[in-house]
Amino acid sequence: xxxxxxxxxxxxxxxxxxxxxxxxxxxxxxxxxxxxxxxxxxxxxxxxxxxxxxxxxxxxxxxxxxxxxxxxxxxxxxxxxxxxxxxxxxxxxxxxxxxxxxxxxxxxxxxxxxxxxxxxxxxxxxxxxxxxxxxxxxxxxxxxxxxxxxxxxxxxxxxxxxxxxxxxxxxxxxxxxxxxxxxxxxxxxxxxxxxxxxxxxxxxxxxxxxxxxxxxxxxxxxxxxxxxxxxxxxxx
Length: 236
Prior knowledge:
- The model has no long low-confidence stretch (mean pLDDT about 95).
- The longest helix is centred in the N-terminal third of the chain and has 25 residues, at about 1-25.
- The chain has one domain: Glycerol uptake facilitator protein, CATH 1.20.1080.
- With about 240 residues, it is an all-alpha fold.
- The protein has helices at about 1-25, 35-60, 65-75, 80-105, 105-110, 115-120, 130-150, 155-160, 160-180, 185-200, 210-215, 215-235.
């Protein structure tokens, strides 16, 4: 059960710290409101690195269904472990978002825009176009999974790998974040989106936007599979 527990707590921390950055810079009356894109990039990079450093040796620090499925395609994890990993990740993402709703409850009350509140917990495209939005999440996750698979094994023993993970996350955000918010992860988008739907406030126009929400769930998995197949063709 330890790998599943690691994936649950690690994903909870990832969402708690990552979506916490979004709450901090977006919600009314936050002391860091208006922190901007650089604040978000640095915060999200750290949000992935911190739990990865903590739980990497225990579970591989996936915290992402797309990463788990990509690893299974490459033979890095048994397929029998995949459902448990994904369930743990999704539960962790939901619980992380729920905790933030408590911590930022006063700031959520002070924020009139449902879209702003939703945007703290899940992603949305800057320009809604199903094809290009799907491709944005596909390409971002392709880069994520291909580069993570290429980190040398000895880097993990020294702890350098987690710094490299930070670099990958920040690089993806810097290049693709303005398109769709670079979710790359159903546990980071779909699970908090459920939390927003079930626990978030209704200020007159509450909409979890599942018309778009399927893209951050499906496109990353497709990108991860293609990245893993190409990685095997090049390096295996």
